[in-house]
Amino acid sequence: MKIEEWKRDDGFTISTDKEKLDLEVIYRFLANTYWAKGLSKKVLLTSIQHTPLCYGIYKDSKQVGFARVITDFTRFAWLSDVFVLPEYRGKGLSKWLMEVITADPHLEGTSFQLATKDAHGLYKQFGFQELRSPESRLERPINPEIIEKNHL
């Protein structure tokens, strides 16, 4: 897949180049979130490695944000691990990142899903809505013990 980049006049860039990702910055941030707390660095980094589309936000060459999309590029996409470092919030970076992701031609026509406790307002601006029939959805929760055992 071709690496894509988007630039703003204020020195911020979004890139899908996984080689640019600062895995330490990503791990340090995600390890303290409600959705990834307790997962090991190895598991988090393996999940990034196996994700087809990762978007890094950079100020010059410093990583300041991240998102990943797990997808089959046809019918389904799961948006995960979206963040902007606290010191870079309030600059429109989350909205810009969502504009880039939702306009990505590789994802055109796919059904997106995500889970969030606190960012509904952001995602609703980009067409996300509550599940139409949550009673028909099931999940098999993560078992951290098995994940750790299988990825050591």
Number of strands: 6
**Helix content estimate:** 25-40%
Which residues form runs of ≥5 with pLDDT under 50? none
Q: What would the CATH topology be?
A: Aminopeptidase
Structural class: alpha+beta
- Spatial order of the strands forming the largest sheet: 1-2-3-4-5-6
**Cα separation of the termini:** 29 Å
Largest sheet: 6 strands, mixed
Q: Give the DSSP E fraction (strand runs of 2 or more residues).
A: 15-25%
Question: What's the architecture in CATH terms?
Answer: 3-Layer(aba) Sandwich
Give the class-level CATH name.
Answer: Alpha Beta
Query: What pattern of helices and strands is seen along the backbone?
Result: EEHHEEEHEHH
Shape: globular
Q: Can you tell me the CATH superfamily? A: Gcn5-related N-acetyltransferase (GNAT)
Average pLDDT level: 90
Q: Indicate how many domains the architecture comprises.
A: 1
Radius of gyration: 16 Å
**DSSP summary: helix tally:** 5
Topology:
Elements: E1 5-7, E2 12-15, H1 23-30, H2 41-49, E3 53-59, E4 62-71, E5 76-84, H3 93-103, E6 111-113, H4 120-124, H5 144-150
Parallel strand pairs: 5-6
Antiparallel strand pairs: 1-2, 2-3, 3-4, 4-5
Explain this structure to me?
It is a single chain. The chain is α+β, with helices and mostly antiparallel strands and 152 residues long. It is globular. The chain has a single domain, classed as Aminopeptidase (3-Layer(aba) Sandwich), CATH 3.40.630. It has a six-stranded mixed β-sheet, with helices on both faces. The chain is built from five helices and six strands. Helix content is 26%, strand content 24%.
